[in-house]
């Protein structure tokens, strides 16, 4: 194998860059979990609340389909369903049937969920700023 190449001709720098991304992601998720835990949330919980809160006014009234949320928070459908169940139990979201498709489920924020999101959003954004700006590639 030539110097500066990993398996199958992949440049070593590319592999190192990938590992740096994974490391930054892991450190950032741990820091988010640590900050948000004080408010009864994890990083994934917050991401779901954030997606729901940042929707258009029409979205917030009718909510998002679970599949739409899954595509934005990068969780499997089953993991997302369990997470939504916990958020619903805590009174942060409500689930309802889709009017256009009886098999679909829509999720929307409750007033309690909207208030908690507004309270912790600055914390989450501060962690992102601290972690991503301090570790940005040169």
Alpha-beta classification: mainly alpha
Largest sheet: 3 strands, antiparallel
The CATH superfamily is Winged helix-like DNA-binding domain superfamily/Winged helix DNA-binding domain
Number of domains: 1
- Per DSSP, what share of the residues sits in E-state strands of 2 or more residues? 5-15%
Class, according to the CATH hierarchy?
A: Mainly Alpha
Q: What is the string of helix and strand elements?
A: HHHEHHEEH
Radius of gyration over all CA atoms, rounded: 19 Å
- By CATH, the topology is Arc Repressor Mutant, subunit A
- Any low-confidence stretches, pLDDT <50, length ≥5? none
User: Strands of the largest sheet, in order across it?
Assistant: 1-3-2
Span between termini? 28 Å
Q: Globular, elongated, flat, extended or rod-shaped: what is the shape?
A: globular
Task: Tell how many strands the DSSP assignment holds.
Answer: 3
Second rung of CATH, namely the architecture: Orthogonal Bundle
Number of helices: 6
Secondary structure: helix percent: 55-70%
Mean pLDDT across every amino acid position:
86
Pfam families: MarR
GO molecular function, one term: DNA binding
Keywords: DNA-binding, Transcription, Transcription regulation
Domain HTH marR-type: 1-138
């Amino acid at each position: 194998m030539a110097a500066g190449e990993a398996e199958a001709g992949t440049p070593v720098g590319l592999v190192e860059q990938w590992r740096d991304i994974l490391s930054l992601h892991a450190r950032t998720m741990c820091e988010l979990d640590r900050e948000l835990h004080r408010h009864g949330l994890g990083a994934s919980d917050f991401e779901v609340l954030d997606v729901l809160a940042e929707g258009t006014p029409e979205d917030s009234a009718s909510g998002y389909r679970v599949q739409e949320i899954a595509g934005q928070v990068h969780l499997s459908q089953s993991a997302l369903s369990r997470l939504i169940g916990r958020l619903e139990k805590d009174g942060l979201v409500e689930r309802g049937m889709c009017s256009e498709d009886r098999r679909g489920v829509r999720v929307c924020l409750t007033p309690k969920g909207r208030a908690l999101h507004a309270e912790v959003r600055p914390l989450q954004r501060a962690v992102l700023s601290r972690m991503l700006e301090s570790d940005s590639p040169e």
